[in-house]
């Protein structure tokens, strides 16, 4: 995997992946910051796992959202010290046990972004299962 980050102006940079996707990041609040990008990556990576695990279990999922809350160190470098991920899954055929298992497997085995932070960031999770009204 390769990527390139190019300076645009001021503190704005464009990142380009080797697959051709681009993202703009900024250190002045004019776009997603690099730390916000890391937090989003935690949620996206883990949510991909949760959805994939549930679908492989033949569960019908209507939606999956991951709300993230992070705490950072007071002094530089202002690294994350804690991240909490709360998943809300709307589905008609998912049990609490299946969702708990999917979240646990993501956190402990599959989510490469979370696992990279292990040992440096306290990561906690929770979830809410909402019964779908669509069948």
Number of strands: 6
> What is Rg?
17 Å
Number of helices: 3
The SSE order reads EEEHEEHHE
Structural class: alpha+beta
- Calculate the terminal CA-CA distance, rounded to whole Å: 41 Å
Strand order of the largest sheet: 1-2-3
Largest sheet: 3 strands, antiparallel
β-sheet strand percentage: 35-45%
* Parts with pLDDT < 50 across at least 5 consecutive residues: none
Which geometry do the CA atoms define? globular
Explain what this protein looks like in three dimensions.
With 135 residues, the chain is of the alpha+beta class. The chain contains three helices and six strands; from the N terminus they run E-E-E-H-E-E-H-H-E. The strands form two sheets. The protein has a three-stranded antiparallel sheet, with no helix packed on it. Strands 4-5-6 form a three-stranded mixed sheet, covered by helices on one side. Strand 4 and strand 5 form a beta hairpin. Helix 1 packs across helix 2. It is globular. The model has no long low-confidence stretch (mean pLDDT 96).
